[in-house]
Structure formats: structure tokens, C-alpha cells
């Protein structure tokens, strides 16, 4: 079994931001806490799907709500431990390891924090492969598995138990409780056997996030960084990263009636005189280059700040900043017809069908 | 030499019968020459028309004469190694003797058709051509900026990563390289990496498969020919692949299959950096970097006199070994998804995933045909299977029937009939319920068909 020690945390932080596709939140403070904890108390085991006990039961832990609020009021992991204890009581099962639902942003670190507190190992896989805003946008849902029983602890410390059979309903009800309970919640749920997890989770995403994040530590130049990024990503279940655009942030806007935020870039370097627009709903969902679709969800659209050569969330983009926009294909598990019905562009109100990066840039990929 | 008589002058002995006879003979000779010239022109016209059609066809095409000798193959047939696939995948003699129109599937994935040609009841020869599905799919909205990092080369395997790193380093030099590895390991891809990372990248990259081209055509393909050097030679001659690769890279695939006479000729090219076309008298200087590749054991071939030792040392200045796919288990899942996405796009299908069980089987299967086999397998599955999830039942029979080697105690258990009901049911699922499947299963278990039926009855399967 591999072990996640304190040296993994900085790469996981950057990898998590990149996989957040503009959203997912970032939590530098939680990363520092984890680093200290792992250095002090020892590493957390990382289990591959192949090594799960087929009949053993595993549970997921995660943060729901505003990552910014989680940053202000730093969770210590005890909330997740409490939720997990409750879930154990409800199901009468001992959990053999913890599962990550959303392998990006703040939620790639939080299960690790809870794993360190409980002494349980973490499964090297997740159910989103990136950041998504809603609870039903998981491979559990694609496989028609419900997230319940689920125990949620709100930011005021109150416990809520959910047993909905429908994941859309679960999303609505948990979101309401989180909204009323201070904007952040911590849950334990999705109790599932090893044999099922093997079938549905996207494998090796935690170790991939760390490998990806490593590229951003001492990156050298941008071209060097991009070359490394291509080497790491093409040898993964995602697919090669591709530079979509480089430019200066010209405008950050909002289309109030349609829930969309926008970031407009004016091209620099090889893209001079070109325009790039990104449509956002929490995550970067659709990108246009000179009014033609350049990438769309579930493929990832991520920013790199060209001054620091680090990945950044869309909340950290400000006018005048020079950024590179990098696309990365989502794993095939998110691109099937069944998955696109839940995480495709039409689920966010976009009227046309999904156009995969591999098709838009076919000569680059094949 | 003059005949002593000029046109317009009165002919000597013009009224003699012998003069008249001479005139008749000369006239018939001229008529016959004109007829021949016309027929030659028509033959040449047909030949050039066939060549043009072959180029425009977009499918692989091989033409055979009535004795089954290859008389023409187009570039696509060459790229697809069609002749070799056809030779290995069919009973070629039987097919050519049957002389009937036939549909075939080579390597489980390449549909081809054989069509005979007749004049009345006389058999003239035949054509073999591919019938690949039309892949008219709108792709490539943008041409991305050239990016380093080789996005099309998928490998995590440390041995292969090292081989790629060596290839990129030696690309900068002009040394001759010998790529060694089993068929289908991607030797041509390696040669392309070397070319594209070399100072010759703006020059041509010319590839020729020495095993795919019939021996009688290989010399003229490689060295070109001068006009009139043999029957059917094109007017004005034709440059060979070596000449076409001038200031670029020549990739000689399956060099171990090169006939000995050509080995000597190639050696002279390497030594003198000049070539002479077939039927030519004047050597032409050339500037070519040669990358050769083979899956054969050249050392053994040298020992048995099938391969020239001096040529081996000339070619093997920098040898690079490419590991077979069975030594790269960490790459199999990545390659499966890489090609699954590719063919889903090309065939306009929805994206697919592999089930956990299918992946486990595909990871243990030894892939004797390496990446080529894996790519063909994925193309086959994507083409024929409409399910979103590729399970064990969707895999081609040879893979489904593959079972990892068992320990001696497990084999003993099987012989003594200690195979559980679940295990037998799973095996039956893999080998199929048909009589042929059961026969294969019995062979696999090392028991008779009758015993297998007894076990099936016992387990009520």
C-alpha cells in the first residue's frame, strides 16, 4: 500500500486546483494543517481499487457548501469523524477505508484530514474525476446508486440524517440544510461494498492529482511546465492537456438572468488579436475562441497564472492578469451518454450537444 | 548506312517483282510496328490509369496476375501491410484458385474483398481491396499550436520511457539506428519521433516495409528505375524510396526480410552514400538518414547466413529495444481508453467504458500482436458493439478464451474434476455454449468432450 505523507500535500493542493476546472475551492490553510498533522502523526495509507475487500464496506466524506466559508472557519476533520461515527451506527458496518467523492479543490484534502483523524486508509479513486457543483453529479448516480444513508453536520454542529432514494432530491434537501445551517456542511455517506466501488469509481485519481500538482512545484518556464503537463496528463485516464489560449483578462462579467458568470480574455503572444470567453457556473463550463466553441464540460478548462505559473480558481482571476487556459479531456466515465445526461453541457442550460476536446482538436490527439 | 536511293528518285528495278515483294514486306512490317506501338501505348495508358485510380481510391488495393503474382499495390495497401495481412490471414492459394468473389475480415478488423477478373471464361487475375467504413466525421475545429511532450505517445512503462528518451537524444545526431522489437510494438512511431526531433524534420519521412512488398517489386521500390529497364517500366523512370528520402529519413521496416542481393546493394548505399537506379548507369548522390527496424533475431540470421554481418554492424550503430505490450501492463488500460475514444469519435459512436472484469482480462491477456492488436481489438469492439459498457462478453473470442496460466496444483485440481460449479459456469461463459466452444473448453481443461458433458450434467449447467 502507498502512503500519503506530508510531502504529498503541496502537489495535492495544486493538482486539486487544476482538477477543480476553475471551481472546487482552494484551501491553503487546510493544506498547511494537513501537512503538519501528517508530519506529526504519520502518513495515511492509499489503497488501489484492486486491493479493496469485495465484501468490505467503505464510506465517503466530503464538505458541502461554500469553500470560502470553510477557509474562514477552518474544519479540523472532527466534523467528518462525527458524521462517520453516526453513519456507522446507522448502518451497523465498520468502514475499511474512506472514499473521496470529489477529487478536486477542497474535497480532495478533506477526506485525507478525516482519514488521518480516524486512522483509516483512503481509496485511490473518486466519483467525479474533477469538481462539479451538485451531489448527483457522481459515478454513483450514473450507476443508479444512492448516496444515502447520509449524515450531515452543519457549521453550527447540528446533525441531519438523510435517507432519500433519489440523488436529485438528496442534493436539494442537503443544500437547503447547509444553506440554513451556516453555508457549510460536512457529510459521511455513500456506504458501498468494495466490489461495487471497483466497478464505479474512477481509478487512481488521488495519486494522479499529486503527480499533476508536482508539475507546478519549481516549474521553470511556462513552456517547460506545459511540456511536463502534457507528459503527465496523456499517460492518465484523462488525456493530454492542451493549451487553449493565452491572454490578458479584459473583463469579468455576469449574465444575471442566466446564472452565468463570464471571463473575457484578449489574446497575447501567438493569440494576439483573438478573443476568448469562458462561461462559468461555479466551474469553468464552456469556452469560446473567437465565438467558436473551444472546450466544454465535462472536459476540464483550467487557468494558469503566467506570473506565478500556478493553477488558479476562477475567483482568483482579476482584470489585467495574464493567464493560460488549459483544456484537459475528462475520463471516459464522464463522457458516456448516461453520464452526459447528468454532467453534460445541457445540464447547465446549454442548448447544443457536447463536443469533446478530442474531436475539436483531433489532429493533436490522434 | 545509306541504301543508295533517295526518296523522290526513280527506284532502281522499280518494275521488278522482287522490288514489289520487298515493298509489301516493308509495309507489313511497318503496319505491325505501328500496331505494336498502339498496343503498347494502350497498355501504358491502362497502367498509368490504374496507378492514378489506386492513388485516388482511399482504400488499399493489390492486383494479382493469373499466376497469383502481385503486379501492383497502392500506397494505402503498403501502409496497411495489406499483402502481409492477406498472406497471413487467408489461405491465399486456395482463394486465388477458387477465383470467386469473396468477402474476408483480416485480423478480426479489416474487411477486404477479393474480386476475380475474367475475359469470357479465361481467368486474367484478381484484385484484393479493403472496404473500411467511411469515416466522414467532422473533426478538428482548431489547429492547436505545436506543443512538445508527444501527446500521441502513451506510455508510463519505465523501459519504454527510457527508450523514448534515448530516441529523442539520438535524434539530434545523424547515426543509423536499429529499432528492435516484436511486430506491432510501434517501431514506426519511434522512427517518426526520431525524425520529428531531428534536424531533418523539414525533410521527408519515407517508410517502406520490406516484408510487405513482394520480393520482385522491392528493388525497384527502393532504388527506383530508369525508363525501359524492364517490361512495364514507366516512361521517364521512377525514383525509389531512397531517392525520395533525400535530406530526410528513410525508415526500413522489417529489414530482416530483405533478400540477400538487396542487402548487398543497401550496404553499398550506406558506404558510398550514392544510389543507382535499376537499369541505370549513373550513381546519384543521396543524403539520407536510415532507421531500420526488425522483429527478427538478426544475430541468429547472421549465423545461418541469412543476414549480412557487415550490414548488421552498419545498421546497428545505435540499437533501441522496444518492449512488447505484455511487458507494459501499466499502459494497457490507458491505451484501451485512448483508442476507445479515438474510434468512438471516428465512428460517430457514444463514448464507452470498460467493466472492471473486462479490464482485468484485457490486462492479463498477452497481446501477441502488441499495440496493433490492441488497437484493432478496440476498433472491432467499438464497431460491432453498441453497449455503453464493454464487458467480457463484448471481447473477441481469442481474448475471452484466454485464461492466465495456472499453477500446477490448480491444473491437477482440474484434471481430477475438482472444478467448482462457479468456475465451470464462468469458463462456459467465456468459451461459449456452442459445441465448438465446449470442445475448446474441454481441450483447455485437458479432458474429453464426454467428460465435460458429464461435469455439466452433474452441475446442472
Automatic annotation (TrEMBL), chain A:
Note the Pfam families from the entry: S-Me-THD_C, S-Me-THD_N
Q: Which SUPFAM superfamilies match?
A: CV3147-like (SSF160991)
The superkingdom listed in its UniProt entry is Bacteria
- Record-linked Gene3D superfamilies: CV3147-like, CV3147-like domain
Stretches assigned to the S-Me-THD N-terminal domain: 9-163
Family annotation (InterPro entries): S-Me-THD-like_C, S-Me-THD_C_sf, S-Me-THD_N, S-Me-THD_N_sf
Domain S-Me-THD-like C-terminal, residue spans: 166-357
Q: What is the protein name given in its UniProt record?
A: DUF917 family protein
Q: What organism does the record attribute this protein to?
A: Desulfofundulus thermosubterraneus DSM 16057
Q: Give the taxonomic lineage as stored in the record.
A: Bacteria, Bacillati, Bacillota, Clostridia, Eubacteriales
